[in-house]
Here is the input.
Amino acid sequence: MTAALVGSLEGLEVLLCEKTEMVGGITSTSGGTIWIPGTHLSVEAGVPDTTEAAASFLDAVVGERGGDAQRAAFLEAGPQVVEFLQSKTAVKLAAAQAHPDYIGNQPGEAYGGRALAPLPFDGRRLDKADFIRVRPPRREFLALGGMMTARNEIDALLHPLASLGNFRLAATTVLRYAFDRLRYPRGTRLVMGNALVAQLLYSLRQQDVPLRFETRLVELVKEGDAVVGAIMAGPDGHRRIWARHGVVLATGGIARHPRLRQQLYPEAARRYCLAPETNTGDGVEMALAGGAALTEGLDSPGLWMPCSILKRQDGTELMWPHIILDRAKPGLIAVNSAGRRFVNESDSYHDFVMGMLRSPEQAPDKPAHLICDRAFLDKYILGMVFHGSRRLKPFLKAGYLIEGESPQALAGKIGVDPAALEQTLADYNRDAERGEDPIFGRGTSAMNRFNGDPEQTPNPCVRPLGPGPYYALAVWPADLASSVGLKGDEDGRVLDADERPIHGLYACGNDLGSMFRGTYPGPGTTLGPAMVMAWRLVQHAADGEGRANARTSQRTAV
Here is the structure.
């Protein structure tokens, strides 16, 4: 969407083809955070950031895995892209004053300023038909069947009588939602990823960019070594679309491609996926057939999220991503299939799963478990069990939540060694009495502490687990994005196995291999590079380097 929007603003004739009947893909169901260092928004937020500091941070995180030219181009262009979108489109962002980078204790890391969030968007600004085209969030995250809430509003909505401010927020939000449902299938107050997608769609409509829905890529058209168009299949059949400046692939990566998923992902991470069912790797598959190459030497082929699964009575499953609301809080530990801790539970969702995948004791066909005491459930959220909930019976009956009066009893129910779990709890509690975690360093990074509980001292992430009953929740690895993708250069040009550009073919988003080489430096480090590379590839295409290699009398396909 960014590539099409920037292309139109730069004077190119653009056609945007969307495989499904809705726009947004996995962005619509995400937090919508965009990681772009050194912008003017960081200055406005009072947490000024520099690209030089970010470069030092990325050098430390990525190491010698490559991708240096792409990252340098990203850092150079990022502030320009944000200023471009803010001034010329309906995309409106704000820098978070506090949203730390994910990898702690590194040179150049930032506590705030780099994570940009879309401002809430009023979906009523879109035509009703277009509003329905915005892919809704995961149903697990919709309150009252269709109401979106920002992360910083959850506590107020759960405790509306705790303060006057909470009551006002809850009352206005719910009333707005009630009026929305008189005309719309869900609430029109859009936040997070939904807001970003709606902002982009609104901007595309303002530019009169043509969108073809339910139109999928069938084949790339080549003349010699250059891509000159694409064959698309839509409601009216197959059409060959010629491209003067280039074809841009942004089809969501390899998430649900049956062969590439099996070939590239570790066995334990193949079972669950957070991407839409239609993200079947079409762009990557067609590019590979046209001579493109995949990135190599990555730290991980995917970016991961631990997820719990609630099986409903009708046989369907609800999947809950465990982002920050529970794992970082004190009074909870995670154990592998051997009953032992394997990771700093307060680290990022990606690093949590990386610890799980790298644990030699973790069986690939079994989940890990989050374990807490009753006091934890009374104060915090645990997956779909909201804090203060007295209605545990439905979760226990469904097998989503598992209860045991003692560590040994709980171990028997979750299939781990009772002696190992009892020793794990004893060892953890001994150190936690002093607010310490010498094994995994929980609470020693700014990101850990930010997501912990400031009321818990001296360590906001650590406290002993108290007396039983104890509770366990199974979590499985799921991919939220692919890191492995098409090999590309700093302008988004797709490369072949010999590092040569395939003229007329560009990629961005998850179709392009990760410039962070399979690491996950901070919040929004998929969307940030996606939008910046989209801007860069349009600048390159508009300069016309590939024009001599393509037809000059037909349309541009994006």
Q: What stands out?
A: The chain has 17 helices and 20 strands. The first strand starts at residue 16 and ends at 17.
